[in-house]
Amino acid sequence: QVQVVESGGDSVEAGGSLTLSCKTSGFARGDYHMCWFRQAPGKEREKVSCLSWSGSRTYYLDSVKGRFTISGDNMKNTLFLQMNSLKPEDTAMYYCAAGRLWTMTNPDYWGQGTQVTVSS
After folding, report:
1. What distance lies between CA 70 and its chain's CA centroid?
2. What is the mean pLDDT of residues 14-31?
3. Pairing of β 11-13 and β 68-73
4. Could you tell me which of 23, 34, 54, 86 has the fewest CB atoms within 10 Å of its CB?
5. Residue 30: what pLDDT?
6. What percent of the chain has pLDDT over 90?
7. Closest CA relative to residue 34, chosen from 99, 112, 83
8. 94 φ, ψ to 5°?
9. What is the pLDDT of residue 53?
10. How far apart are the C-alpha atoms of 91 and 13, rounded to whole Å?
11. Eight-class DSSP state of 107
12. In the chain, where do the E strands start and end?
């Protein structure tokens, strides 16, 4: 049974930090690229950051470059997103996803999401 479970979301003040975690099971983690997406109320879902299956390639949304860092622990099947200097516009539900294509246009697996709220 495939499971993708995010955690770490919270309410913080602007300038604060959070680390999101995504624990996966039920599929060969090493065969999949992993990404964090987010969706704010009334807005489209956007791809925030990705880590290739090999760990050698990363992607960051322009607005989070220099503030967010993606990392993974394949031995523990866990993906992380370290978020620093948080801004109110980072407020969203954050989702973890796994897919075989780097474009992640149609990920194979999704988590249920974890809420991040940043107050000004």
Report:
1. 8
2. 95
3. unpaired
4. 54
5. 86
6. 93
7. 99
8. -105, 130
9. 93
10. 11
11. -
12. 3-7, 11-13, 18-25, 33-39, 46-51, 58-60, 68-73, 78-83, 92-99, 109-110, 114-119
The confidence score (pLDDT) of residue 116 equals 98
What is the C-alpha to C-alpha distance for residues 30 and 75, in angstroms, rounded to an integer?
Answer: 9
Q: What is the chain's length?
A: 120
**Which residues neighbour 97 within 8 Å (Cβ) at sequence distance 6 or greater?**
4, 34, 35, 36, 37, 104, 107, 109, 110, 111
Examine the pLDDT at 114 and tell me if it is beyond 90: yes
- CA 76/CA 83 separation, integer angstroms: 21
Q: Angle at Cα 2 formed by Cα 6 and Cα 31, nearest 5°?
A: 90
Task: Name the one residue in this structure whose structure tokens are 């539900």.
Answer: 93
The string of pLDDT tens digits covering residues 60-112 is 999 999 999 999 988 889 999 999 999 999 999 999 999 999 999 999 999 99
